[in-house]
Design a protein that fits this description.
The protein is an alpha+beta fold. It has one domain. The chain is 23% helix and 34% strand. It is built from 2 helices and 5 strands. Strands 1-2-3-4-5 form a 5-stranded antiparallel sheet. The longest helix has 17 residues. It starts with a helix and ends in an 8-residue tail after the last helix.
């Protein structure tokens, strides 16, 4: 299910600013933090420039996922695990109506699941 238009607009604006802060201008030709919206999920990626002459495409590594619950009108935080699975972080941070609360947890990375 797609995000409600007002929620989509709000989360995109917040994530664009947040990713911009984590992608310093002087490093953008080497690394970037970006996001994709798919249905009710917003996945945050760290992207790296090709590191070898034989590699032409940027690589992407998932950092975190925000999942919108239409019924409760709140966001949950998930972290990537092995095997392309996602671990809910409800025990670390309660679901929040504001994505900024969850972005602050990703920044702080108290468990090392997001930035390593």
């Amino acid at each position: 299910m797609a995000l409600p238009p007002e929620v989509d607009t709000e989360v995109r604006a917040q994530l664009e600013a947040w990713c911009d802060l984590r992608s310093p201008a002087e490093l953008r030709d080497e690394m970037r933090v970006e996001f994709k919206v798919r249905g009710n999920d917003v996945t945050i990626y760290e992207r790296r420039a090709p590191w070898h002459p034989d590699v032409t495409d940027w690589t992407s590594a998932p950092v975190a996922r925000l999942r919108y619950d239409h019924h409760g009108e709140h966001w949950s935080l998930l972290a990537p695990t092995a095997g392309e699975r996602w671990l809910k972080f409800d025990d670390l941070v309660e679901p929040s109506p504001r994505p900024a609360v969850l972005l602050a947890v990703i920044d702080a990375d108290p468990t090392g699941h997001f930035w390593g």
